From TrEMBL:
Protein name: GRF-type domain-containing protein
GRF-type domain location: 21-64
Taxonomic source organism: Linum trigynum
Record InterPro entries: Znf_GRF
Keyword Zinc-finger: yes
MF-aspect GO terms: zinc ion binding
Pfam families in the record: Zn_ribbon_GRF
Domain of life of the organism encoding this protein: Eukaryota
Chain ranges passing through the membrane: 130-154
Keyword line: Membrane, Metal-binding, Transmembrane, Transmembrane helix, Zinc, Zinc-finger
Length: 156
């Protein structure tokens, strides 16, 4: 196995006790084929076969607490904590970068929709002014017609 190990001190476990990788996805259980740990089971990222998606999460399945302590001390836990923290920070930074891009796109769509609504509002407002002017003209024409009819009645 060429994957580098990482420590489990910052591991997430969901409400059902399922170990989650840095993607917050349920881990898969694999079996080590190394000389140092033959047959030992470990949790890994479910995307372990996809080099781009794999978050490199690693945690031994606990079988014997003493065995875990001995193995952790051999690996050099402090170095792995730093590597694990770095990977976690990189995943968070990438996620925030994607979120920022999505928010910027959504803001752009909202601004475009706002501009369209403003333009539509101005168009409707102009139409209302035209309709009001036409109504005033109709009222005036009706008044003129009434005056003419009254004048015609008086003349007869």
């Amino acid at each position: 196995m060429s994957k580098r190990a990482s420590s489990s001190t910052l591991t997430s476990i969901n409400s059902r006790g399922v170990v989650l990788c840095w993607h917050k996805k349920p881990c898969v259980v694999n079996t080590s084929g190394t000389e140092a740990n033959p047959g030992r089971q470990f949790y890994g990222c479910p995307f372990w076969m996809d080099e781009k998606k794999n978050c490199r999460f690693f945690r031994w399945v606990r079988m014997n607490v003493d065995e875990d302590k001995h193995h952790d001390s051999e690996i050099g836990l402090s170095t792995l904590n730093i590597e694990e923290s770095l990977r976690l920070a990189e995943c968070k930074a990438e996620r925030r970068k994607k979120e920022k891009k999505l928010l910027a796109e959504e803001l752009s769509r909202w601004m475009m929709a706002h501009e369209i609504m403003l333009a539509e509002g101005k168009r409707v407002n102009n139409e209302i002014h035209v309709i009001r002017a036409l109504l005033v003209l109709i009222v005036l024409l009706n008044l003129i017609l009434v005056v003419l009819m009254l004048h015609h009645v008086i003349m007869w």
